[in-house]
Predict the 3D structure of the following.
Amino acid sequence: MAGNLELLGSVLAKAKDEGRAALVGYLPAGFPTVDGGVAAMTAMIEGGCDVVEVGLPHSDPVLDGPVIQTADDIALKGGVRIRDVIRTVGEVHAATGAPILCMTYWNPVDRYGVERFAADLAAVGGAGCILPDLPVEESEVWRKAAEQHGLATVFVVAPSSRDERLAKITAAGSGFVYAASLMGVTGTRESVGQEARELVTRTRAVTALPVCVGLGVSNPAQAAEVAAFADGVIVGSAFVKRLLDAESPEAGLEGVRRLAGELAEGVRAAA
């Protein structure tokens, strides 16, 4: 079974045809449990997300802020394994038909086996990987495996990336470009800022890939703000927080479904 790179492209293109940004949601696998995570991600798609990123929990994340770190800790203490992450991708895709990516640091992929990881992810219908800490210069082995299995390779660019660096990163990537809106770690913020807009403009100057913005979007107003200049809006910590703050698993599912709906209205408000 081939990966779903083409599905990812068609979903992003459909959003563009509708004159809006795509809504991309994120949750780590195994949070609050493996099955609970599958249910929550399914609810996110049902509520209005176009794409979901499944995080591979890591004990020493460099990009994730305290909210996602808390969720990662819960998942790791619950015994989540890479096979659970891949199962999560497959079950959410099977339940929704949406493109589902894995967001992971490089070390777990390297330890699991690059070819094995790509093959297993594609076998369950995964759309690709977001690899925030894999330098382009060291990515050839992964990119070959991903291409062979029909998977997207999504790299992260930041406001600190110089134009020539942006060109190099985006030339190696596929699916879309993940634009980190601010220097620093993930988390909800009061405003997303001008840096994100400038980064999207500079990135679009060197690639035809869609540019999706993450790090900091947590409410419909911010989603609308980012959707006005980006091809996609990525939201993670706000979904995690809904689950952390929920009084029951049922309330958590309703919370993420409702937030997805509110954010979906936000990206459409900018159209």
